[in-house]
Amino acid sequence: MENKQLEEKVIMGIDPGTNIMGYAFIGVRGNHARLIAMGVIDLRKFGDSYLKLGEIFSRVQGLIKSFLPDELAIEAPFFGKNVQSMLKLGRAQGVAIAAAISRDVPIHEYAPLKIKLAITGNGGASKEQVADMLRRMLKIDEEEMPRFMDATDALGAAYCHFMQQGLPVTKAGYSSWKDFAAKNPNKIK
């Protein structure tokens, strides 16, 4: 009989967007995480906002069907000055959530500040700092890093959710930013 604790759990991360939407999948086995896939859904070719929402729904459902995630971690829209932009972002997030609900995937939402804090130890960290920390913690080659930060933002949401389950140990053996910094003093600038 197979031990349930040794089965891999798949966490999907989404960084909602109306032009570029990031997604990522990590595999979790016990306290270890590994990157499965990450990328973006490019919505810029769709002029109509409703067509974009339909594409988000369809593509998120397709990704769920392909990777069979056990849970979804999605970045919450941040409060900006432009109400119209926030409304569009909220719609994109809602459609992605609806796609997950339609596939019975449990959803967890995280504020950008919480994700940055969990990954880097600094709630004011830049997207580049978050991406670099994820690259180092998950041992991703620089050549494999995506061009769009939306993908690494999605990876950050998934990894943040993983960290909420307790202090993880990555493939590289780091349990936190502080642990990484202590073990790699020459890599910290």
Which consecutive residue ranges, at least 5 long each, have pLDDT under 50? none
Strand percentage, roughly?
15-25%
**CATH top level class name:** Alpha Beta
Mean pLDDT: 88
| DSSP summary: helix tally | 6
Give me the CATH fold name: Nucleotidyltransferase, domain 5
The biggest sheet amounts to: 5 strands, mixed
User: How many β-strand runs?
Assistant: 5
The best one-word shape is globular
Characterization of this structure:
This protein is 43% helix and 20% strand. With 189 residues, the protein is of the alpha/beta class. It has one domain: 2-Layer Sandwich (Nucleotidyltransferase, domain 5). The longest helix has 20 residues, at 83-102. The model has no long low-confidence stretch (mean pLDDT 88).
Summary, kept brief:
The chain has six helices and five strands.
How are the SSEs ordered, and which strands pair?
Blueprint: E1 9-15, E2 20-29, E3 32-42, H1 49-67, E4 71-75, H2 83-102, E5 107-110, H3 112-120, H4 127-137, H5 149-163, H6 177-183
Parallel strand pairs: 1-4, 4-5
Antiparallel strand pairs: 1-2, 2-3
List keywords for this structure.
globular; single chain; 189 residues; alpha/beta; 43% helix; Nucleotidyltransferase, domain 5
